[in-house]
Amino acid sequence: MAALIEPVLGRVLPAGSVHLVAFVLGFGFITFLHVVFGELAPKTFAIQEAPRIALLVAPLMKFFYYVFVPGIIVFNGTANYFTRLAGVSPASESEESHTEEEIRMILTRSEETGHIDVDEVEMIESVFELGDTIAREIMIPRPDVETIPASMSFPDLRSVVATGTYTRYLVLDEDGDQPLGFVHAKDILRVSETETELDESMTARDLARPVLTIPETRRIDTILADFQTRGEGQMAVVVDEWGVFEGIVTIEDILEEIVGDIQDEFDTAAQEPSIEKRDDGAYVVDGGVPIQDVNDRLDTRFESDDVETIGGLVFSRLGRVPVVGDQIDMDGYIIQVEAVDETRIERLVIQLRE
């Protein structure tokens, strides 16, 4: 290449520098062709047509692999020997793995390019968050749990199950404090069909099945594993550090953390805590809505280490039993109590402070 350029440069440059300049120009031109047509362009084709290109070059790659494998063994073996002497374990590209954060970045990029649907990305990210979520954050709180006393007679129990909307009912002791187990609707039906003469003394305690009991700090991925390995139904009783009954977690609650709300034939919109925006820009929020859901919807930064719901947050800030009309000022918002059920905040209004 330098020989082709020298005659042209000889007319304008001193004789002593012609060869050097011609060499530099020739080397630069060859490097340009190599980078563009030897690396960048082939790489672009390979990315766009990955399966076809891979099948095309695979036979050649395999051939040259076996040709050079003796040299590969010698070089890798020598390098690994000296790295071991230095106290470093040999690494291999085939053993490369990705961290959770790297996988999230890959998912985000794949979503942006349209290779993965948004819903699929959200589900995968929800799986990652299972290990960061505890039972207290997703449990059905005690006031919302449908329970029956252990002393309830079989006829009354059958009536409750027949008119209710659940298949499992938590059985509490006579004091109404400690869960003893749960009654399954199938057990009621089975007893009704098989017993010709029902024992009038039969109660909910007699039909109660064992129920899984978990601490409120247990991670929900671990709870899901418990449901898979233990034969105690699809319901778990959540207790606090003193063993006091706090609520329940079902397998549906965990699945909803991955796929979103699951509506069955008995669910109604009124049963789900909601956030609704009014025409004046204020938000009407059920007291049972998790603080994180409020933050996501309103782009706020409410937080608390002691409570999980927005109603509980307002209650703790008030420091007393709430009444309708109570309000607090937080993070640039006015939060006003709109409805109360005894000591429980049922509904709030959240609006920007003027």
From TrEMBL:
Query: Domain named CBS: which ranges?
Result: 139-200, 207-265
How does it sit in the bilayer?
Multi-pass membrane protein
Q: Which residues form the CNNM transmembrane domain?
A: 1-120
* Gene Ontology CC entries for this record: plasma membrane
Q: Which CDD domains has this protein been placed in?
A: CBS_pair_CorC_HlyC_assoc
Give me the segments passing through the membrane.
Answer: 20-41, 53-75
**Descriptive protein name:** Uncharacterized protein
Origin species, per record, is Haloferax gibbonsii (strain ATCC 33959 / DSM 4427 / JCM 8863 / NBRC 102184 / NCIMB 2188 / Ma 2.38)
Q: What is the lineage of its organism?
A: Archaea, Methanobacteriati, Methanobacteriota, Stenosarchaea group, Halobacteria
